[in-house]
Write a structure and sequence with these properties.
The complex is a heterodimer of chains A (252) and B (466).
Chain A lengths: L1 H14 L7 H14 L5 H13 L2 H13 L6 H6 L14 E2 L2 E2 L5 E2 L2 E2 L1 H17 L19 H35 L3 H6 L1 H16 L5 H24 L13
Antiparallel strand pairs in A: 1-2, 3-4
Helix pairs in contact in A: 2-3, 3-4, 7-9
Chain B lengths: L1 H11 L9 H9 L1 H4 L20 E5 L3 H12 L3 E6 L11 E2 L1 H6 L7 E5 L1 E5 L5 E4 L9 E4 L1 H15 L2 E11 L8 E7 L9 E7 L1 E4 L6 H5 L7 E10 L2 H6 L3 E5 L10 E5 L4 E7 L6 H11 L8 E11 L7 E2 L2 E3 L15 H18 L9 H29 L3 H11 L2 H13 L7 H29 L1
Parallel strand pairs in B: 1-2, 1-11, 2-8, 5-13, 11-18
Antiparallel strand pairs in B: 3-7, 4-7, 5-6, 8-9, 9-10, 12-15, 12-16, 13-14, 14-15, 17-18
Helix pairs in contact in B: 4-6, 4-10, 10-11, 12-14
The chains are: A mainly alpha (252), B alpha/beta (466).
Function (chain B): Catalyzes the reduction of geranylgeranyl diphosphate to phytyl diphosphate, providing phytol for both tocopherol and chlorophyll synthesis.
EC number (chain B): 1.3.1.83
Keywords (chain B): Chlorophyll biosynthesis, NADP, Oxidoreductase, Photosynthesis
Chain lengths: 252, 466
């Protein structure tokens, strides 16, 4: 397909070689090629494009460059002639069909390999974060992560983390029990009946759950402040005592 | 017999010429002579009647807040003056009004340029979700031109008896004692464009500050500052065939590229679309965000021509002091813009009306002087009615605009019909509708699921980065 396009491009570009030199004429080049292509909106496009040069030069250059890059099928000859900002870098993958992952291509031993779908989607999102793409109505993205069953997510993310946290809790629990026993002589069973020990247990479990990295401590403090900030801003109008209105507030 | 009693009553009363509501005035007038000597009168009920005149209230700013306030004041029998600096001000604004505003403010249907019945939410990874399937036939989001709406509300205020002055409010002298008037300094243009205008002063009893995000009234009373977002918008005229796609559809783009704490939008207007974005924390990068928004919508606004570029500040939370003695702030000046959606027109108009109603009630249709406690009633009513809405939207913003995984989860959840129904119900009618508890539980589970999946994918992405 690209070879045939290359074959077609020389005759067109040779006729337009001179106009290509000046940017102003490159717009007329644009309107000529747009008119020649089978695009129903070509007349309005060219009118709009020629109008942009009069209006605001800077944004016009953006809109002009947008036009050729987004019709790769019909006028890839434009892409070769005009300097475009991006030649429509799009996310493409053999398994990404019609805006969603084709589950049949992910089969392994006759069953769908959910893990590889998760990894593929992560790769797609990473690609889009680095190269944000335009949305088109022609190829809508329809993928919904909920088609991957819940146990696949559990197995891949929840279970390893749960194992880690339970391990931490077990180690802390063992040593705290030993420590308390050696200090006070109270055995494990008797410790469980004591209120203070139960509180300590609760603190240990909460600590293991919420503080997983060193930064989490500061993050939690920030979180508490953040949740109450909006309310404080609203109540500020009521905080003022009535007597302050009698004092001269501020003749700024 | 009746006439004899009438004469004796008028003899007792000190000042007011009004004889129609003398019954309600009798108790206060009897205590008038005693109360005159006390320094502070706290309750309006015991305020003195105004001698030979009605209460004079100035409304600074002629947007939706000012127009609604002036109309309600004038209808309540109060001498109202509305000061607006630019009568044909074409404000940079999304221009979306909820359905309830049309009913509550009796807006004529021809003010609405477009009825948006479909919305598309687009996630950072371009997953697009259509919302609006649950809307009924008569439900829509109205898109208006601000200059048309503002002018209409001002004209209605004028018809009700308010005096509309084309002028720029400069500053205000605060009164020395409790019954001295406020002295407003303003420049009157009187319709002459380009002229420097005349400096004038005016004495009024109370002021409603409806002059927007950079309110001078707020500065005069030391209301304090607020955090604000910058919203940047470009109006783009696109070819007709592309315009048919936006006939009744608006789009919302979320993503780190579009905005770190807000969203980018494409809203259809009368004959063009408005493409814009906003941010609170990264105001310096707004142009970059705008380019990214245009890039995301590139295909759909292809061949478009930018006809106008505009930007405006959006308050993020109310000012610390929303009123002081007999000056109250309403609308953007007070900071009544919701989080998450950035909606302000309806709340501006409603707060203007509520404040005016409080003044009308406290002054008993303009017969008495009002006090801060009357205005506080407006604050009370406002907070009681709308604080839950503001809180919910704040939580939504905090949870779902945090990061790309959160936004992905947000968009995923919006595909759920129950969410759509609840969202539109609360947006269109401004009531927190009681949902079905079973559906609420399902929604909670789905939310947790979506957030978990999005965060799991984020961890996967991080693993790929390494």
């Amino acid at each position: 397909m690209s070879i045939s396009m290359a074959l077609f491009s020389p005759p067109i570009s040779s006729s337009l070689r001179n106009p290509y030199l000046s940017p102003k004429n490159s717009l007329s080049l644009l309107s000529v090629t747009r008119a020649s292509s089978d695009n129903g909106a070509s007349t309005t496009d060219s009118a709009a494009v020629s109008a942009t040069t009069v209006e605001i030069p800077k944004p016009a250059s953006v809109t002009v460059e947008e036009v050729p890059s987004k019709s790769p099928a019909e006028s890839s000859s434009d892409e070769t002639d005009l300097p475009t900002t991006e030649t429509g870098i799009k996310f493409e993958d053999a398994k990404w069909v019609n805006g969603t992952w084709d589950l049949k291509q992910f089969e392994k031993d006759g069953k769908t390999d959910w893990d590889s779908i998760i990894v593929a989607e992560a790769k797609r999102r990473k690609w889009l974060e680095d190269n944000p793409e335009t949305t088109t109505n022609a190829e809508p993205v329809l993928f919904d992560t909920s088609i991957i069953p819940w146990w696949a997510w559990m197995k891949r993310y929840h279970l390893p983390e749960a194992e880690l946290l339970n391990g931490r809790a077990a180690m802390i629990g063992f040593f705290m029990a030993y420590f308390v026993d050696s200090l006070t002589g109270v055995g494990l069973v008797d410790q469980m009946g004591n209120f203070f020990c139960k509180t300590l247990l609760f603190v240990a479990v909460a600590g293991v759950l919420f503080i997983r990295k060193n930064e989490d401590l500061d993050k939690l403090k920030g979180l508490i402040e953040e949740t109450t900030l909006y309310d404080k801003q609203w109540q500020a109008a009521w905080k003022e005592p009535e007597s302050s209105s009698s004092t001269v507030s501020s003749k700024k | 017999m009746a006439t004899i009693t009438l004469k004796s009553f008028t003899g007792l009363r000190q000042s007011s010429p009004d004889q129609t509501n003398f019954i309600s005035h009798v108790p206060s007038s009897l205590s008038l002579t005693q109360r005159r000597t006390s320094l502070r009168v706290t309750a309006a009920r015991s305020s003195p009647n105004l001698a030979n005149r009605n209460l004079r209230v100035a409304v600074i700013g002629g947007g939706p807040a000012g127009g609604a306030a002036a109309e309600t004041l004038a209808q309540g029998g109060i001498e109202t003056i509305l000061i607006e600096r630019k009568m044909d001000n074409c404000k940079p604004c999304g221009g979306a009004i909820p359905l309830c505003m049309v009913g509550e403010f009796n807006l004529p249907l021809d003010i609405i340029d477009r009825r948006v019945t479909k919305m598309k939410m687009i996630s950072p990874s371009n997953i697009a979700v259509d919302i609006g399937r649950t809307l009924k036939e008569h439900e829509y989001i109205g898109m208006v031109r601000r200059e048309v709406l503002d002018q209409y509300l001002r004209e209605r205020a004028e018809k009700s008896g308010a005096t509309v002055i084309n002028g720029l409010f400069l500053k205000m002298d605060l009164p020395e004692n409790w019954d001295a008037p406020y002295v407003l300094h303003y420049t009157e243009y009187d319709g002459k464009t380009g002229a420097t205008g005349q400096k004038k002063t005016m004495e009024v009893d109370a002021v409603i500050g409806a002059d927007g995000a950079n309110s001078r009234v707020a500065k005069s009373i030391g209301a304090g500052d607020y955090d604000y977002a910058i919203a940047f918008q470009e109006r783009i005229r696109i070819p007709d065939d592309k315009m048919t796609y936006y006939e009744d559809l608006a789009e919302m783009y979320v993503g780190d590229d579009v905005s770190p704490d807000f969203y980018g939008w494409v809203f259809p207007k009368c004959d063009h679309v408005a493409v814009g974005t906003g941010t609170v924390t990264h105001k310096g990068d707004i142009k970059k965000f705008q380019l990214a928004t245009r890039n995301r919508a590139k295909d759909k606004i292809l061949g478009g021509k930018i006809i106008r570029v505009e930007a405006h500040p959006i308050p993020e939370h109310p000012r610390p002091r929303r009123l002081s003695k007999r000056v109250a702030l309403v609308g953007d000046a007070a900071g009544y813009v919701t989080k998450c959606s950035g909606e302000g027109i309806y709340f501006a108009a409603k707060s203007g009306r509520m404040c005016a109603e409080a003044i009308v009630e406290g002054s008993q249709n303009g017969k008495k002087m009002i006090d801060e406690s009357d205005l506080r009633k407006y604050l009370e009513k406002w907070d009681k009615t709308y604080l839950p809405t503001y809180r919910v939207l704040d939580v939504l913003q905090k949870v779902f605009y945090r990061s790309n995984p959160a936004r992905e989860a947000f968009v995923e959840m919006c595909s759920d019909e129950y969410v759509q129904k609840m969202t539109f119900d609360s947006y269109l009618y401004k009531r927190v509708a009681p949902g079905n508890p079973l559906e609420d539980l399902k929604l909670a589970v789905n939310t947790i699921g979506s957030v978990f999946r999005a965060n799991a994918l984020r961890r996967e992405i991080e693993k790929l980065n390494v």
